[in-house]
Amino acid sequence: MRHHLPTIIIFGSGKISELSRVAKEKLRASRPFLVTDRGIQKAGIVEKIKTQLPGIRCASSSSISKMLTGISWGIENHEKA
To answer: Domain-by-domain residue ranges, the chain?
Structure first.
């Protein structure tokens, strides 16, 4: 199995309004997933992204970290059993 994750960096004032077009045309993303942090959430940026990409799945970096910690714990304890 092989995956390719293209990187496109677009920045500047008002660029969130281009997100839907870029996701569809450039990335051909059908099920986008956003990993963010509390600062971006508190700034209201996640809500702006959600208006451009309805149905986008989101997770905070802290929840991802907790999930990976849980997975690591499970692997370590499985190996000990």
So the answer is: 15-80
Q: Which helix (H) or strand (E) holds 61?
A: helix 61-80
Cβ atoms 49, 22 nearer than 8 A: no
**Burial grade of 23 (CB within 10 A; 0-12, 13-18, 19 or more):** middle
The H or E element containing residue 46 is helix 45-52
Contact 27, 6 (CB under 8 A): yes
Interacting residues of 65 by C-beta distance below 8 A, sequence separation 6+: none
What is the model's pTM?
0.64
Q: What is the pLDDT of residues 38-48, one digit of tens each?
A: 888 899 999 99
Tokens of 80: 């000990």
